[in-house]
Amino acid sequence: MLFFTQCFGAVLDLIHLRFQHYKAKRVFSAAGQLVCVVNPTHSLKYAPTLCATAQTSTEQGILPPCHHHEAEHDPQLVPCMCPLFSCPWEGHLEVVVSHLRQTHHINILQGAEIVFLATDMHLPAPTDWIIMHSCLGHQFLLVLRKQEKYEGHPQFFATMMLIGTPTQADNFTYRLELNRNQRRLKWEATPRSVLECVDSVISDGDCLVLNTSLAQLFSDNGSLAIGIAITTSKVHSSEAEM
Amino acid sequence: MLFFTQCFGAVLDLIHLRFQHYKAKRVFSAAGQLVCVVNPTHSLKYAPTLCATAQTSTEQGILPPCHHHEAEHDPQLVPCMCPLFSCPWEGHLEVVVSHLRQTHHINILQGAEIVFLATDMHLPAPTDWIIMHSCLGHQFLLVLRKQEKYEGHPQFFATMMLIGTPTQADNFTYRLELNRNQRRLKWEATPRSVLECVDSVISDGDCLVLNTSLAQLFSDNGSLAIGIAITTSKVHSSEAEM
User: What is the distance between the alpha carbons of residues B99 and A189, in angstroms, rounded to a whole number?
Assistant: First the structure.
């Protein structure tokens, strides 16, 4: 009997160790899909001035008004895409990925379909969950933001942006999917370019929007799993032409 | 030349007549799908007291608290499901359909997949768009409501209810789909029973929720087309058991 008890203890220890290993990696595979655990980013240094005056971003690759002085010199200059870091960095499209990885330690994941597992959904607004996604030869940025548009009523906004130009972004379609408790919510759209402002996309509400009660229904133990898939939208456009 | 002009005029007249005919019927078929034009119902006699005290409806077929005095006698008694009519009617499940048709002139449509075309989305809140849907041997009620949860910020809430018991409702899955402007939003869930209160489903936000900007993106000329499909969910539950 003692033998069995010890065996059971050893198995439990192994499971615990394996769990710790997963926690450390923060990326693991479940049911054939790559699951990425994304920790929240909460900052008191929230700088809404960065793009506060930005109107609906245009599709012509023009930077938001707050960057017009830069746009006159170089329309490819991108402000730092970590909205809550109030990072003063600005750079060319080609170095955005390395800046986000090196300065802000944002993970980059490979694969056409991944699961974004946002932890600690209960944290107060404003909070961001950010990850990069490498797929189909391009890099995308997924931003999940908890924000209070109406005081006392936090909402969740999720959008995907291409680290590329608006013209390149038009070639893709992204899908965000929530699936739990006999409910399923899918959002499909063309990604915006990071040359447009993530703040204006979210303030326009042109993204997946969840109120707190829906977010709770889709959450498991304080974590929200969002399935992400990216496809090329060329098939759709040729269908539309037919 | 005059001949061609007159021919063109005659064709235009024919198109106009056909359009008038469609408008009169308010139900027509587009691309093989049944499209139902649903006019809004706006009432100043909004009676939030009807279910104002109702909490999240239970799955056990218990009526909302405001009807407990009735529930003691007959748990199958249903208040009138036209929320903005402040209709004092109450009746058994079996006669809900005939009451909605005869007293409130709500259309009933046949078919597994239909398109619900809500007109005049610009009308101020509170406004309802209601239709009945007959499918798979049962009748369902689709309610689209424009409501101001936060003053000055109207939102749209869409849900489907079974004119039947909660146990019967568990056998179905409904899907609402919006598709326009390179964006697609899908909501899938188990319908609630009309024995639960539509007001509490909407106030809980456990339904398809659209802010005004998203509703505008999905609207065409002030009308919002919602694709509706109902399936039996028995396949899903057997899959879950496997």
Answer: 41
Query: What is the SS3 assignment for A48?
Result: helix
A206 and B184 within 8 Å at the Cβ level: the answer is no
Asked if residue B187 lies in contact with residue B176, where contact means CB atoms within 8 angstroms, the answer is: yes
- What pLDDT is attached to residue B76? 67
Identity of the residue in A149, A187, A214 whose CB atom sits nearest the CB atom of B205: A214
Choose among A153, A182, A188: nearest Cβ to B150.
Answer: A153
Tell me the CB-side half-sphere exposure of residue A234, using CA atoms within 13 A.
4
Would you call A211 and B205 a contact, using CB atoms and an 8 Å cutoff?
yes
Distance between B31 CA and the closest CA of chain A, angstroms = 14
For the stretch A139-178, pLDDT in tens is 999 999 999 888 888 999 999 999 999 999 999 999 999 9
Q: What is the pTM of this model?
A: 0.74
Interface contact flag, B184 A184, Cβ < 8 Å: no
Determine phi and psi for B121, rounding to 5 degrees. -65, -15
Residues A61, A75 contacting (CB under 8 angstroms): yes
Q: Which domains does chain B have, with CATH numbers?
A: 30-40+76-232 (2.60.210.10)
Looking at chain A, the whole-number percentage of residues with pLDDT higher than 70 is 66
Per-residue pLDDT tens over the stretch B70-128: 334 466 677 776 655 567 778 888 888 888 888 888 888 888 788 999 999 999 988 88
CA within 13 Å, CB half, B142 = 32
Q: Is the pLDDT assigned to residue B149 strictly greater than 80?
A: yes
8 Å CB contact of B187 and A188: no
| Contacts with A186 from chain B: Cβ below 8 Å | 184-186
Helices (H), chain B: 2-25, 68-71, 96-104, 166-169, 198-204, 212-218, 234-241
User: Which pLDDT tens digit goes with each residue over B153-168?
Assistant: 899 999 999 999 999 9
Q: Which residues in chain A are contacts of B206 at CB distance < 8 A?
A: 183, 213-214, 217
List C-alpha distances in Å: A239 to A166, A233, A234.
21, 10, 9
Q: Which two tokens stand for residue A17?
A: 């160790």
Closest CA to B134 of B230, B35, B47: B230
Chain A residues whose CB is inside 8 A of the B173 CB are 182
